[in-house]
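Whiteboard transcription, Tuesday session. T.W. wrote the structure tokens on the left side:
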């Protein structure tokens, strides 16, 4: 009945050093799992709707989606199961192919619209123009019909709004486009003019086949004119200047390199156009992420892609000085886009700049002058950059006029009230008239899309703004569903102690044989609050036997820890030295641990989106075998339906019926769970389950409530006795006169005067 057996399975005793720990990791089941970059590959018949989805047979070549391509570009024969390890061999091979080619650019025939449509459908990629296309039509009409048309337009707008409410689907269909998909990474160089070194760096990472989000986004972001060439779309503001972009794609589907490649490529292209040397650095892209862990990870990924290009990808730090421009005047002069709900600053996901050590180049030089840091691409959490931009206590407010591209990773949380004020502040500071925006997440509520559209409209109304770019949304798969390639489990325990017991039982190999696939380390355990994470850690840490590494095998990470401790724990977890990492939602988003076998929602996630992101820490890059276990108690029953819905949708997407015995959420359960009122949803999202906040049931323990009550009474009695003794001593010291302590206030205050 203990965690030890599972945690010591297959592990040599007395692992003392890193080398041994690394060996241990290599033996973990996750180490052998291979990525399946493409999650979807349905067969699509020409002209017919996609209809019933069928998983593509891996052994059967699928010619449907290669219409018009060279044979060597046919992705259907590519080895999808190639390991992700940096592959110098792959890079070498590509380099050889490229060198052997007589001319650097091969003549590539672009797909016609039908060909694009088929591939996009087969991979469940759906593009919708959210703004741009529609506005273009209206603008032309106004010009042609003058004042009369203006009145007509008002009428039409009104009826269009009513129409849109009635038939949202039909309207959605109208605005769909089918740009060129990226079927091979080689096309990056040959069709989309990506710099050879960048193309080589992608190849060197062992990425062989683009994931769906890469397939859909990269052409549009790199060369929108080429991507839209055969679609017949004419978009407002032209497409040469680029598009604003919203991408909603499953967790672990490779969104990070999808926004990094265009950012690096943009720097290289502009550097070449302006004839700048590679050691001349201009801040051209800002990538915002909600947590320090995610920001550091993006920097690491960016640096790998930028090797040998001279592009500097830098993490924002407390004392980093950027090449910014000072602004005179108040915020209101900036256009007053402040969000009503903005300004809530406390969040477990939030970052602080405290404790940051500056890089050598960030420190003040003797003599007081501090040159701006050499940065091309800045990766930051919102608050730390906003602190710099607001100029501190006395300095002037600053803007970043050279930034051409703003990327919001986990955009839905960055534009949520928790971070909205900070994110909007950064967006406003990117004052270049042609700055592009791209937003990325696995979940994107429609209010976030509406907010982005509205803000873009406001910006375009400013006198100095360039013609408005189109805003295009890409959705991969079903919107807002968890990874379909993992196993979901929803487990009910009536009480808190029962939950702890269930966690231990789940980890035990014998009981887990009855209840489905065992949960094997390494895994993440999510709790609702920092206190609960800490308490669970205290409860579990001595469960691991010394021979298996003892308490060092289990760690806790949350936002109250200093940055240095957080980095250390992350490094140990990545190295396989820590097997069980207890955490809060601070690690729920974006963080990529390729080998995580499981996720335990010890406390139920507070929203459907939170479930998607937490569960998505396993099964990265389409790896199979991941398990997400969610416990719920009596207190959670009123709120668990949203999570159950996501699980049901994920299972459906994976082809599992709700009537299946093996389904985590069966129909009867879905019907039985109470519907959550909108207001309750909002409350739970912000505050979590009330009874789990500090005090009361915040304590995690296996003791029964009777035992806990007895313990509590005993503690109270001890406290009371100590208090009495203290008072007695004080009385003795002052010769019977009460002067201070608990009673002091009474004598000095003297009661009410009125
Ligand atoms: N084309 C590819 N082939 C194989 N693996 C890939 C490919 N592209 C990215 N990966 C790998 O997939 C993993 C997940 O990528 P990434 O962290 O970018 O996912 P994500 O979509 O940002 O997820 P999340 O929504 O959780 O933030 C990473 O380990 C990355 O190296």
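and on the right, the sequence the group agreed on:
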């Amino acid at each position: 009945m203990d965690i030890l057996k599972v945690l010591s399975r297959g592990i040599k005793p007395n692992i003392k050093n890193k080398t041994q720990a690394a060996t241990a990791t290599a033996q973990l089941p996750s180490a052998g799992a291979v990525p399946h970059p493409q999650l979807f590959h349905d067969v699509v018949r020409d002209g017919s709707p996609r209809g019933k989805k069928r998983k593509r047979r891996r052994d059967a070549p699928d010619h449907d989606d290669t219409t018009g391509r060279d044979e060597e570009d046919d992705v259907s024969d590519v080895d999808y199961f190639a390991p992700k390890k940096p592959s110098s061999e792959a890079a070498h091979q590509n380099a050889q192919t490229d060198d052997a080619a007589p001319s650097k650019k091969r003549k590539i025939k672009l797909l016609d619209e039908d060909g694009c449509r088929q591939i996009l459908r087969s991979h469940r990629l759906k593009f919708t123009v959210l703004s741009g296309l529609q506005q273009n039509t209206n603008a032309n009409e106004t010009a042609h019909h003058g004042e009369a048309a203006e009145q007509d337009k008002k009428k039409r707008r009104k009826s269009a709004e009513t129409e849109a409410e009635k038939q949202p689907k039909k309207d959605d269909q109208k605005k769909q486009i089918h740009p060129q998909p990226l079927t091979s990474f080689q096309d990056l160089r040959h069709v989309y003019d990506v710099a050879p070194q960048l193309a080589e760096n992608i190849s060197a990472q062992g990425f062989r086949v683009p994931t769906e989000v890469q397939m859909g986004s990269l052409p549009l972001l790199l060369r929108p004119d080429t991507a839209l060439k055969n679609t017949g779309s004419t978009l407002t503001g032209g497409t040469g200047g680029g598009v604003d972009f919203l991408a909603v794609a499953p967790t672990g589907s490779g969104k990070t390199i999808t926004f990094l490649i265009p950012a690096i490529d943009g720097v290289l292209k502009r550097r070449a156009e302006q004839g700048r040397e590679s050691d001349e650095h201009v801040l051209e892209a800002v990538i915002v992420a909600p947590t320090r862990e995610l920001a550091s990870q993006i920097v690491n990924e960016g640096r790998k892609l930028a090797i040998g290009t001279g592009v500097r990808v830098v993490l924002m730090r407390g004392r980093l000085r950027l090449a910014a421009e000072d602004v005179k005047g108040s915020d209101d002069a900036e256009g007053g886009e402040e969000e009503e709900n903005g300004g809530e600053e406390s969040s477990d996901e939030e970052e602080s700049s405290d404790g940051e050590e500056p890089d050598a180049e960030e420190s003040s030089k003797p003599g007081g002058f501090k040159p701006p840091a050499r940065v091309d691409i800045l990766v930051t959490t919102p608050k730390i950059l906003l602190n710099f931009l607001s100029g501190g206590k006395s300095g002037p407010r600053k803007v970043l006029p050279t930034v051409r591209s703003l990327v919001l990773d986990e955009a839905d949380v960055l534009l949520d009230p928790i971070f909205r004020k900070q994110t909007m502040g950064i967006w406003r500071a990117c004052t270049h008239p042609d700055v592009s925006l791209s937003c990325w997440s696995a979940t994107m509520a429609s209010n976030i899309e509406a907010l982005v559209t509205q803000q873009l409209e406001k910006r375009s109304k400013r006198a100095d703004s360039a013609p408005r770019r189109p805003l295009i949304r890409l959705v991969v798969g079903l919107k807002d569903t968890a990874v379909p390639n993992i196993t979901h489990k929803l487990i009910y325990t009536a009480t808190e102690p029962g939950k702890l017991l269930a966690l231990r039982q789940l980890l035990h190999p014998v009981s887990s044989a009855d209840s489905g696939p065992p949960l094997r380390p390494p895994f993440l355990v999510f709790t609702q609050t920092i206190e609960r994470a800490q308490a669970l850690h205290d409860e579990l840490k001595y469960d691991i036997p010394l021979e298996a590494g003892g308490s060092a095998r289990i760690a806790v990470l949350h936002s109250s820890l200093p940055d240095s401790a957080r980095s250390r724990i992350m490094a140990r977890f990545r190295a396989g030295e820590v097997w069980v990492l207890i955490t809060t939602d601070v690690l729920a988003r974006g963080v990529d641990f390729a080998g995580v076998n499981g996720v335990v929602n010890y406390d139920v996630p507070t929203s459907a989106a939170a479930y998607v992101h937490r569960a998505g820490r396993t099964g990265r890059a389409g790896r199979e075998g991941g398990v997400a276990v969610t416990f719920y108690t009596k207190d959670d029953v009123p709120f668990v339906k949203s999570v159950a819905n996501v699980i049901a949708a994920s299972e459906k997407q994976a082809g599992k019926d709700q009537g299946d015995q093996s389904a985590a959420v069966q129909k009867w359960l879905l019907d039985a769970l109470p519907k959550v009122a909108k207001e309750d949803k909002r409350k739970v999202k912000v505050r979590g389950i009330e009874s789990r906040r500090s005090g009361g049931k915040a304590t995690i323990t296996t003791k029964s409530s009777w035992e806990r009550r007895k313990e509590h009474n005993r503690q109270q009695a001890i406290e009371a006795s100590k208090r009495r003794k203290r008072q007695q001593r004080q009385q003795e010291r002052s010769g019977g006169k009460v002067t201070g302590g608990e009673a002091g206030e009474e004598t000095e205050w003297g009661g009410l005067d009125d």
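Someone added at the bottom: The longest strand covers residues 125-131.
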